[in-house]
Specification:
It is a single chain. The strands form two sheets. The chain has a four-stranded parallel beta sheet, sandwiched between helices. The chain has a two-stranded antiparallel ribbon with strand order 5-6. By secondary structure, the chain is α/β, with parallel strands linked by helices. The chain is globular, with a radius of gyration of 18 Å. Helices cover 38% and strands 17% of the residues.
C-alpha cells in the first residue's frame, strides 16, 4: 500500500489545520510534556479556593506534588476563601486568568473542580477561556472530596 502523506505530516489524510491551531496543539503537547518554549519548563500557578483550611492545605500539597511530577515550575500559589461562588467574582481566580492571558504562566493547577466553580457550566466557561489563550487548566483530583467521602484525614 502506498502512503500518500508527506514524511513530515502527522495528520490523517484530508485533515487541514490552521497555523494557529497547529501552534496551539504543539503548545499543549509541550505543556503536557513539561516543556515551555520560552523558559524550557512550564510555569504554572496553583489556585486554591475553599473554606476548610485542612482540605486546602491537603490540596496545596497534592498540587505541588503534581507540578513537581510533571516538571512544572510553580510561579505562585493563590489561596482564597470561596465566599464568592461565581468564578468572575473571585479576585484570586481573576488574577490567575489575567496572568495566564499576559503570558506570565502557562497554566493553572487546582485541587478539584469546585475550586474553580461549583457549577459545571461555569467551570466549562473558565476552561474554554484558558484554552483560547493557549493555556491549560489541570485539576489534580477529578472529584471533590465531599462527593467522594474524603476528608483531610482520609476517607470518612
Amino acid at each position: 500500500m502506498l502512503n500518500n502523506q508527506s514524511p513530515d505530516s502527522h495528520e490523517p489524510p484530508g485533515v487541514r489545520r490552521t497555523e494557529r491551531d497547529q501552534q496551539r496543539r504543539r503548545a499543549l503537547a509541550d505543556a503536557a510534556a513539561g516543556f515551555s518554549p520560552s523558559t524550557g519548563r512550564v510555569k504554572c500557578l496553583i489556585y486554591l479556593s475553599g473554606s476548610d483550611g485542612a482540605l486546602t492545605r491537603q490540596a496545596r500539597d497534592t498540587c505541588e506534588e503534581a507540578a513537581e511530577g510533571f516538571c512544572w515550575d510553580v510561579a505562585d500559589v493563590i489561596e482564597e476563601d470561596d465566599a464568592q461562588p461565581a468564578p468572575r467574582e473571585r479576585g484570586g481566580l481573576s488574577q490567575a486568568l489575567s496572568r495566564l492571558c499576559e503570558g506570565e504562566i502557562d497554566g493553572i493547577v487546582t485541587g478539584w473542580p469546585s475550586m474553580i466553580s461549583p457549577s459545571a457550566a461555569e467551570r466549562e466557561s473558565v476552561e474554554q477561556e484558558v484554552r483560547q489563550v493557549g493555556g491549560f487548566l489541570y485539576t489534580v483530583k477529578p472529584a471533590d472530596p465531599a462527593a467522594s467521602g474524603t476528608t483531610a484525614g482520609g476517607t470518612t
